[in-house]
Structures are given as C-alpha cells and as structure tokens.
Amino acid sequence: MKHLLLLAFFCCLSAIAVAQAQPPPQLLTVKGVTIDSSTNKPLGYVTVSLLDATTKQSVKAGLSKDDGSFELKAPAGKNYQLALISVGYKSKTVNLTGAGTALDAGKVLMSTSSKQLNEVSVTAAKPLMKQEVDRITYDVQADPDSKALDVLDMMRKVPLLSVDGNDNIQLKGSGNYKILINGKESALVARNPSDVLKSMPATNIERIEVITTPPAKYDAEGLAGIINIVTKRNADQGYNIGFNSRFNSVFGAGYNINGTVKEGKFGASFFGGFGSNGTLTTNSQTTENIFATQTNIDQNSTNTQKGNFHYGGTELSYEIDSLNLLTASIDLFGNNQNQYGPGSSTTDSLGILKQMYNFYNSGNSSFTGLDASFNYQLSFKKSKDRLLTISYKYSYSPNKQLNDNLFSDRFNYPYSLVPDYNQYNDAGNKDHTIQVDYASPMTKQWSVEAGAKAILRNNYSNYHVDDRDTVSQQYVTNNALTNDFNYHQDIYSVYNSYQLKMDTWTGKAGLRLEHTAISADFASSGVSVAPSYNNLIPSISLQRSFKSSSLNFGYTQRIQRPDISELNPFVDRTNPTFINTGNPSLRPELDNTFELTYSNYTKNAVTIGLSYAFSNNSIQNVSNLEVEQVNGKMDTVTNTTFENLGTNKTLGLNVNTNMNLTKDFTLSLNGQLNHVWLSGTFNDQMYHNDGFTGRAFGNIRYKFKDGFAFSFNAGYFSGNVTLQGQTSTFIFNQYLISKDFFNKKFTLVLVANNPYAKFNTFRSTTNSADFYENSISQNYYRSLAFRLNFRFGKLNSDIKREQHGINNDDTKGGNKAGGNSGG
Questions:
Q1: What pTM does this model have?
Q2: Bridge partners, 85 (sequence order)
Q3: Are 333 and 379 in contact, with CB atoms under 8 Å apart?
Q4: pLDDT tens digit sequence for 9-45
C-alpha cells in the first residue's frame, strides 16, 4: 500500500506541476537533423544543447530522436550556438544566424572519432559515467541532485559502491578498499570516512572514480580497489564563491563555503565547513546464549550522543614558468563527540538468576585529521607531456577517547571483580612520505610511468585503565591494563608501468615492488616484534573500444595491511561483558582480483561487470568466550578481535544503467549481487560460512519548467556475511524537491529521508560451537532537511595542479564509521 500511495503522490505532483507550468511569451524554435557522416544515415540520441553565444552557458538541451530530428525552444531575441555531443563522435558547435522565431540548422553531419570522452571540450552536456581502461568515473557535477545531497548520499548512485544501514561504505560488497582525496590519501577520511563525507555537500565534488584495477603507481593496498574523490578546482582570472547550508530535523545545521581564485600565475581553491551532529538518543540490546552451562546473558542500554564537526582545505598553485610548477595543499578535519547513558545486564542459568547489575557509561571522543603536502613538477622543453614530480607529505591524525563506567544494584557482581573505572586511550598515526614520479610519452601510442616512494609511518596508542578504590574512592591506575604501544611501519617501493593506446585497443601493465619493515614495541612491558616482508605486485588492464561501447578486462594483486584500529592492543571495556581489542600480531592479507566489464553509452548507458577475488589469509573480525578470574571469582566475557583466518572468495555481478525516458524524465538503476565463501580456523574450531549479498539503488528525476525538479531515491542493502554470522538488511528512500533561481545561481531544496519510521533497527548475529549472540541497535531513520546553495563569480578554466603526487593508499580503509547521514 505504501508503494501505491507513493506512486499516486508522484503522479499527482507531476500532473499538477505540468498543468501549472506556463510557456514564456515569445520563443525561438531551433530545428535540425543529426546525420552520421560516414553512412549518411540519421543519428539518434545525440545530446543537443543551445548555448548563449555570449556566456557559452547552456540554455536548453535535449536528445535527437531515432530519425535524427531535434527541436529546441528558448527565449527569442538572443544570439545562440548549437553544441552537439555523442559518444564515439567528434563534438561539434554550429553558429546560428537568422531572425524571427524559427531557425532550421538543416543536416548536421557528425563524424566518428576514436578519442576518449575526456578529450571532449563541449561542457554543455556531459555524460554521468565514463568507463576507462582501469576505472569507472561518475561525474558528480553532471548529476542535478548534487545540489541537494551530501557526498555520502551521492555514493549510493555510483556503480560498484553501496552504503549500508550504519552508513558503512562498501566497494563491490567489500569493506576492504582505500579512499583517496584528489588522488592522495587523506587524514580527513583515514578513520571515519562516512562521518566526513556526510558532512560535505556534493557541490564540492567534481567526480568520483572507482578504480577496480589500480595501476602500478598506486600503493598495493585496498583489496577491492580504490575510491578517488576529486574536488572542484575551477579557476580563471577572477574568483568564484559558493555557499551551502543544511538544516536537518535530526542532525541540526551545517554550513559550507568553497571557492577558487586565479590571479596571474597564482591560483588557489578552498573549502570549509562546520556543523552539528545532532543530539541522538537510541536503544540497543544484546543477548547471548552459552551452550555448555545453558546460560543466558541479556543486556539493554540507552545511549545519547551529541557532537559537532569542522573541516577545511586549500590548494595553492604557482606557475614559475611554462615548465616549472609549485603546488601545496593543507586539509583539516575535526570531530568531537560526547556520549552517555544507562544500561542493565542480567545473567541466568536454567531460569535461575546468576548475576545482575546496572551501569552508566559516559565519555568523550575527539578526532583530528591533518594533511600537508608540497609538490614540484618539471616539464621538459622537447615534450611538455614528459613530467618529473618530487613530492613530500605529512599526515597526523590523533584520536582521544575517555570513558567513565559506574555500576550499581549489583547482584553476584562484587566490587572486587569489576570496580567502577575509567579508561583512556590516546591513539593515532604520524606519516612522512617522500615520492618521485616520472611520466613520459614514448610515441603517440606508447607511454611510460616510473617512480619510487618511501612512507615512514608511526602508529601509536597510549592507554590506561584507572580503578576506583573502595576505601579512598580515588582512582588508581591498573597496571595490568596499561601500556604504551608504538607501531613503526616503513614501506619502500619502486614501480614501472606502460600503456599502449591504439584506435580501438588500450592496454596498461605494470609491476610494483614493495619492501615493508615493521617494529612493534610495548614500552610498558618491554616486548617488541620486528617482522618484514617483500611483495611484487602485478597489474594488467585491457580495453577494447567499439563505436559506442567498450569491453574491459583487469587483473591485479592487492595487499591489505592492518591499520591501527585492528592492531591496537587497547582493551575496550566500555561494556565489561563484551570487550573489544586489536591484534598487534596481524599479518598482511594478499588478494587476487579478476574483472570483466562491458559498457555501452548510447541512448541508455549500461554497465555490466563480473568479478572474482580470493585470498588465503583473510583478516576477519571474530569473537570467543574467555574466563577471567579475579580474587577467586570466575566470570565469563565475550572478547572480539581480529585474526588472519583461512580463505575469502567472492564472485560478483554488477549492473548499472541510466535511462533518459524523455528529455526531462530520467531513471537510473545501480545493483550488485555477490556470493561469498568464508572459511577459517579460530580458537581450535573450524568455521565455514557462505551466502548471497546484494544491493540495489534507483533514482527517478523529473525536471519541470520554471526551475522545479522532483527526485526519488530508493535503495536496498542485503547485509553482510561474516565468518561467524551475518548482519540485517537495510532499506533506504529519499524524496527531493528543488527550485533554481537567478539563472541557477541560487537553489533551494527540500529533502525527506525515510519518512515511514523514526528509527531503523540494525541486527547482527554471531555463531560458534560455544555460544550464539544476537545484537540489535537503533539508528535514526526519518529526517527532514532544508538545503540552500548560492554561487557567484565567474571562473572557467582550471588552476594548475600537479599531475602526479603522493597517494598513500597502502593501509586498509572501510567499515570504520557509523552514524547517519545528515540529509
């Protein structure tokens, strides 16, 4: 019934808006026919745009019909140009001359071209997606919804990407990937990518690249691939400023400003924002059944969170001369969160109460990400496409956590076993990176890239637990739960890759040699380990281009190095019955990935891909029972950690399409289906688990006259299959109504997210031979938002940015963020 009501609402809204739309008093009609010059036959589905001859801005756009005919209408009394673009054909611009209210452009001949889409200079009509030899690119600025959505919401539309009910990003159904900002690893998204991306409006982003077969110049980390987010950097002589804000019924207000400026040889782009994460109160429940003793543990808790965020970044560029370029960038992100709430825990065996207590947990966490880089790029007089780049980068991302735990109404839970306590953890990483890159075209078809790199990384965690003394009521440090952990990881690498580009074939192949030296020191206990290893990583990409389609094949090996969140031996006892800790003995995971993708970009763009990936020492999140003894009293807790366990195999199918049903009515579908096989031995038990995972996302958009537009987004996420269990499904839906003012310089947007329920319930299960665990948690689901975007200034070209730079994509990224989108 809900779906029928929604359909009826959409139909009524469309009919009312169309009925009320009035045509302008006097219009110019432009007609013509698009013709394939080689066959002299009509050419359908060519993007035809009417441009203002003075400003070069698009006034009206549409597609030619099956018979090649087109007709566009625009206000009379101006001079216009006609711009035509179609995949596989050279773009064309026609000057229109004549008076009156009707112009006939006649037959417009379109000649075929073997050039790639990114060489097309016409900006009036851009395709949403582009398939390259090793990646799929989604043009965010070509999507009209970019004015209304944040970056995290926009990712739901990108092929191969999905966002689950806890706002965790997945690439091809996997959380093992790397996120880059402008081709570089960023401390902004090092720990909580979802928190950062949902705070940034999509108007800041130029495009999102999904690199499924990363070439040799990228570090070997990221099992499923790399997500590269490219920010806007348009500039010319002058300036451009944009302002965006959101007001959300759940998450509060957020503000963003971005801009670019160019004066002579100097150019700069910047963005920044701040806002509230809202005050959110949710409930959670965990039940566990221990088979041997027929014991049931039941926990309930309420948690209130309140926080804020801020972020900013700038890129600076100075052209010394036509051959020498200096660039620099600084990025910063900060997030502060307070949380508090009560809870209860009850344990019974065979219906007899064994233990009970109430607890109250309060705490604060603050995260900061800082990146600073400097690059020098040298071109050569004989060939300006031959480039030498020298780069340095510094990254620093501290994360501080403090929790206070108080217990009351104890039954069979003595103070000597678990006193009131607080725990503190100061963790983070500091990186220094030096890199040299060389790129040169050998011929018109051949090009080569080579380089060397050194990453000097220090991950650290200083943690301690303080117990409250029963007599003095003062907190005393618990030495058994105190340590200083330093993890030094130095990576030295060299790479070489070649690309051959023919008329219809493009191939890229390369090798990357990496040496990793590790030293892990537990300062308080005097324990240290120092393993090292070498990896030779191949990558091969092949693309066969046809008239309006392409077929791609890719193979690569990838490494997943554990990061500080998985290595950190800090024992999180926020919930003393269910504890979490890292594993400093984790080894890197090696993965083999095969890709086969077909793309067709005619009337309705379609991408269909098959992938297969496997690894033999996969890193898995696992849980087991542990018995602790304190003062002769036994207590059983569930410990969750990370281990290198067995095999992980994934076979996947993905489908994406964008359909122009009419010139104003578009439909897009984005879906993926995977089958996952997991196996491994943990705690002397052999585990096997397999199953299907999938997701689907759809978008419907109708553009009315007078600047109004309506969009409906809906998605389904099946949940994950883990070695010991699975997670629940998630359904997402969103309604957007927007209105443009002042020649599209000012936009107002109303957004309704998931209006059917206040909360979404997220479930996860864990199974073992010893116990069964079921966890239920709430996330805020329904929210209403109001967004506005304002832009002024004039900038057309790009500020100079180095073409090669530091890409620290060598550590694991993925599902480390929770929370909800801010609308």
A1: 0.71
A2: 47
A3: no
A4: 344 434 333 333 344 447 788 899 999 887 888 887 7
